[in-house]
Amino acid sequence: MHSDLSNNPTGGTIKEQQPDRASNLGVDLQEKSVAVAPESIAAAVAAAVDAEDDQSVAVSQDVGASVVVLKGTAPDHEIEQPTLPRRLKTLLIGKPRNLKDHSVFHSVSLIAFLAWVGLGADGLSSSCYGPSEAFGHLEGHYYLAVFLAAATILTVLVISACYSHIIEEFPSGGGGYLVASKLLSPRIGVVSGCALLVDYVLTVTTSIAAAGNALFGLLDPDRTWLGVTTAELKLPVECALIVLLVVMNLRGIKESVTVLLPIFLLFLITHVLVIGGAVGLHLGAVGEVATSVTDGVREGFRDPALGLGGMLAIFFRAYSLGAGTYTGIEAVSNSMPVMAEPRVQTAKRTMRYMAISLAVTAGGLMLAYLLLKITPRLMLDNPGKTMNQVLTEIVVSEVGLGAASVGTGFILATMICEGALLFVAAQAGFIDGPRVLANMAQDSYAPHWLGSLSERLSSQNGILLIGTASLAALLYTQGNVAMLLIMYSINVFVTFSLSMIGMCRHWYQKRGAHPAWRKRLALFLLGAFMCVGILTVTVYEKFEVGGWMTLAVTTTCVLLCFGVHAHYRGVARRLRGLDSSLSAVAAGDEPNLAEPDCDRPTAAVLVGGYSGLGVHTLLNALRFVPDHFENVIFLSVGVVDSGNFKGAEAVEALQRHTEASLEKYVDIAQRLGLPSTSYLAVGTDAVEELEFLCRQLSRKYPKAVFFAGQLVFQRDTWLQRLLHNQTAYSLQRRLQWDGVPMVILPTRVRDAEK
């Protein structure tokens, strides 16, 4: 969480000075000897991480510009009834999780099987459109489908093996963004991260659009429903499905996955039956198919207008344009934080499940298309239907159930499951996309509030952003799966290529130092060759029909990220001198160890991690009314966000770190001759928990005045308001009704000198 309270109540800093993200503001009220009911832990909601740079971002403070709220009537301390919007929110996304409950970390993590459902569905669902796209680009040379199926299976296994080794090298997750950042350079990592973000947006959009094709293919496109035709109804329904996914993910990851488990299993069963039926019914024709393949290759080789080069060109074009088949493989490595312990073993097992299921399904479908002669010409006779639906209908007909209700029911079940699995696949975009955003936010390449968690310990801001962008992409393309696949595949293989190249460099640098370095290097060289080749052909072939758009969007994202990072670095550079003053503050004075008198005037200072900014807030608070305050108390909240939400131990470490920072502030106040103590909270929502903290302490210290810092820029712009939250003002507005006095001490940030 990044907040502007007390110049930096959440205590982080931008990348160059990152002391510890644990100093962020959050939720669990405690004093060293004072306990507060666990109900005060309002669990999780937007922990915006703006203080991570604020710790190193101040130049001067202006007490004269302070905003003072005068104390009014005594607050009503009765328990407030939840408002209607709050009740609706609880109904939709559930009750807040309690960070004191250690089992909460198990409830939001996934075992290998559930991870296979939630993340593997993305890869497996690509069999609904990837194989048909590749097969359709064989341009009449369908005898090449055997080699295409073999190449597809090999590619799935190679890329999956590469990502299993990436998981070993980067067990904390991060996927392509972290790999490129660490092994190539941070700037190249940003390119990979932005490609991943666009990829996950298109994961949602493509999956939902393909689900619409599968489901609406069962209906007559000209039929009207309340005056609206089936074709006109398709896009609104797809938009509604994206909104539904947003709500499900706001409830939390595991809840959304377990709901979708039956769909995933039914998809596997129906498609195994379809592929098995297609192959089993034509086992007797294996010799005939082998002969036709051999004859086709021979004729193509002898054809002077085609030849070996022409056949290879057709093959590699179809192979590359079927890149949508591989689009979900990286999902596991990007989602390590949601894996159950032991994470590496769980993730590798999930990767194996995904690779085997995808390889068998994709390869099997291509062979089934070949055996049943499902060509694009046949598809023209079945408008509105997908290739998999036509395949299923032919298999059911050959079994002899074409006219039976059982056969019709099986076709309906298969296609409904296919559409539903595509709906499940969109889940990967909401699981992984916000995590990539959070990783980039931690490195100050994205607004810090994108690393926050909600009351349900989900990345609420990232989920909403991914959902909004997915809706925009769906409306822009009108759900055109062919265009979406082009845009989707390019971004996927940008990340794949950079990851493979980075790992090649990694294993080359470790040559001789690891017994398996030659095998690993060879594996990643093969993976890099495959990925770069697919990316090159796809961009070349499809640049004018969607490729340019995805490249333009990704480039824009990269430039925006560089701009955000430059802003945070510039602010930090202008305000780097405050920490140097720490050693000069009351260094030689004997501390006043007396206990604070609750009935005496008290300065309550909201602080974050120990820094020059917090010390300057303290000194300016004391200067606010000279010789008036006789006690000083410090308040801080350790925010649990995506960067430190790694288990119960991490939350306990966050609390210890926050306590250590507060002890340093208390020591300074005592050396200034003032009795002092501190209170802290640990959780996910800084404003909500600080409000509770201030209310409680205003009762214990009735003569207390609360002080908080707020960054104020020389030129206030929308960009600054976006990148630096307004925590102090939000808290002040909440405390006004209760008559709790609060003073905001602006921390001024001057424009950089030109």
What composes the largest sheet?
8 strands, mixed
- Name the CATH superfamily assignment of the largest domain: Amino acid/polyamine transporter I
What is the domain total for the residues? 2
The amount of helix comes to 55-70%
At the first level of CATH, the class of the largest domain is: Mainly Alpha
Number of E-type strands: 10
Number of helices: 26
The dominant shape is: elongated
Intertermini distance: 32 Å
> Could you please say which CATH topology of the largest domain applies here?
Amino acid/polyamine transporter I
- Specify Rg, calculated over alpha carbons: 30 Å
Structural class: alpha/beta
List low-pLDDT spans: 1-79, 97-109, 454-458, 641-647
Q: Taking all residues together, what is the mean pLDDT?
A: 75
Strand content range: 5-15%
CATH architecture field of the largest domain: Up-down Bundle
How would you explain this protein's 3D organization?
The chain has 26 helices and ten strands. The strands form two sheets. Strands 1, 2, 3, 6, 7, 8, 9 and 10 form an eight-stranded mixed β-sheet that branches. It has a two-stranded antiparallel sheet with strand order 4-5. It is an alpha/beta fold. The N terminus is likely disordered. Helix 4 packs across helix 11. It folds into two domains: 235 residues, 3-Layer(aba) Sandwich (Rossmann fold), CATH 3.40.50; 422 residues, Amino acid/polyamine transporter I (Up-down Bundle), CATH 1.20.1740.
Helix-strand layout with pairing:
Layout lengths: L29 E2 L19 H4 L5 E2 L5 E2 L15 H10 L10 H4 L4 H7 L1 H6 L4 H7 L8 H25 L5 H9 L2 H31 L7 E2 L2 E2 H22 L1 H28 L5 H17 L4 H15 L21 H29 L4 H5 L6 H13 L5 H38 L17 H18 L3 H29 L7 H26 L4 H28 L27 E5 L5 H13 L6 E9 L8 H24 L4 E8 L2 H15 L3 E10 L4 H6 L3 H10 L5 E8 L5
Parallel strand pairs: 6-7, 6-9, 7-8, 9-10
Antiparallel strand pairs: 1-8, 2-10, 3-10, 4-5
